[in-house]
Amino acid sequence: xQALVIVAHGSxxxxxxxxxTYDHADTIRSAGVFDEVRTAFWKEEPSFREVLRTLxxxxxxxxxxxxxxxxxxxxxxxxxxxxxxxxxxEWDSDGTSATHATFEATDVGKTVHYCGxxxxxxxxxxxIVRRAETVTGDxxxxxxxxxxxxxxxTERNENSAKAVHLHADKIAKTGRFEEVKALFMDEDPExxxxxxxxxxxxxxxxxxxxADGYHTQEDIPEDMGLTxxxxxxxxxxxxxxxxxxxxxxxxxxxxxMAEVVLERAADAGAAVExxxxxIDRRTKPSxxxxxxx
Length: 293
Known about the structure:
This protein is 33% helix and 20% strand. A 5-stranded mixed β-sheet has the order 2-1-3-5-4, with helices on both faces. Strands 7-6-8-10-9 form a 5-stranded mixed β-sheet, sandwiched between helices. It is built from 9 helices and 10 strands. It has 2 domains: 2-120 and 256-286, Rossmann fold; 124-253, Rossmann fold (3-Layer(aba) Sandwich), CATH 3.40.50.1400. Strand 9 (238-240) and strand 10 form a beta hairpin. It is of the alpha/beta class.
């Protein structure tokens, strides 16, 4: 038997923080490629420490639903899962290139394939683009549009910005959008001045966050000038300084994120290719619109 465990931060304060984790777990569970699919959290139950004990499977794929490599993926999660022989050198990572490593959790008698975070996987670039398609309702969006990939940015973890630049650069190289830039909340270039960085009239803004919360639903919309008070909401697109801002909200809420979780597991040896293709098909905006007609 094989199991998948999606581990995420969660929150004691924001009830929506865990919603994307549950949604992606449900999507993967419905695909039927794992005998068991579980979720675990740092700030909610079940905890990282206890989740392996809830499984019957002896082989487990653990995928962190985090944006960047850092404290949680390199210290907290391996420690709480009690991965025997964990060594950061196993990653051999430059801050965005961690893939997977296999360890024994001998206290529960399981083999754990521990994967890198979803946020640094190449497939995340596709989710960002899909988020742009979803907010505009256009599968072919790109011509006449700019794209801003927004991260938190912090001096405490330089890898936080690396993940944002990684995907912004990759998407820019495709030539699909008129302009692509990486912007941040807490470092330059700041998202507050989003219209200063683009000549293109229509700008799609995609925050590289796992869940919608204080930053994505309050700080960023107000800082960009979409609204004076987040509680009153904002238009999509919203007119700001002779530009139209298409604000997409947290990338982690995009249904295609379930595919990235599976891609991480596939890299570690899980046979999930059929499920990946199925999720890609089912989560296309055009497919969703057609299903409701």
